[in-house]
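sorry for the late reply, my laptop died twice this morning and i had to redo everyting from scratch. anyway the thing you sent over, i finally got around to it. pasting the sequence first so we're on the same page, its 221 residues, then the predicted structure underneath. double check i copied it right bc i was rushing
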Amino acid sequence: MGKARRPTSHRIVNSFTTDFVEGVKVARRTSRLILLTGATRSGKSRLAVTFAKRFGSRIVYLATCRPADRDMKRRVARHQQERPRSWTTLEAPDDPAAVLAKQNGFVDGAILDCLTMYVSRLLMRRLSDEAILTRIRTLCQAMRQAPFPMVIVTNEVGWGVVPATRLGRRFRDLAGFVNQLVAQHADDVYLVVAGLPLRLKGNGLTIGAAYDPDRDVLRAR
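ok and here's the structure:
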C-alpha cells in the first residue's frame, strides 16, 4: 500500500459557522499571525506588546483608533507609554491593509490594535455588512502575506448586555463575525481574561500574565 498523500488544499471548512466563514481560503503561510481577543481591560494590548518584543526591535504598531474625546486620548497615551519608544507607530484607522502593504523587509514584526475599532469606523462610514467583511478578508490576506509576524488585538463585545439600538446590535454581530473570520486565518488564537492568556488555537509561545496586577492595575484606572 502506498503512502498517504498530504492534502494540498488550504481551505478551512467549519460546518458550525455561517457562510462567510465556511470555505475560507487561507493564504499560504509566510509568517506567524497571532490573534488576541477578550473583554475591555483584560490585558490584551499589554500581552501584544510582550509578544512583539520577542519578534525583534523593529516593530510597527498599526493604530486604528482616532481619539475623539479626552478619555480616549488618555487611553491612547497610556498604551503609548507601554510601548518601547524605538517602535514605529503608524495611524491606520481607515485602511490598515494598505498601510501594511507598504512595509518592507526592514520590519521584525507588527501589531494591529485594534480590529474592533476598525470595524466600528467602517460601520460609521455606512458600509454594508458584506462590504465590511470584504475589507476584513482583504486585511487578512495582507497580514498573511506580510514577510514578518503580526499580533492582532480584537474585542469580545457580545458577552454583555444586549444593545438597545439596532445599530448597536449590528455592530455586536459584525464584531463577532469578524473575529471568527480572522481566527480562521490566524496561526494562534488567545482568549485573554484577567491578564491571563488561554490558548484556543495553535502551538504558540507559553507566556505568563500579561501584566503585574500590583504594579499596573491602579495606574491604569
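The chain has one domain: 32-197.
thats about all i looked at so far, will dig more tmrw
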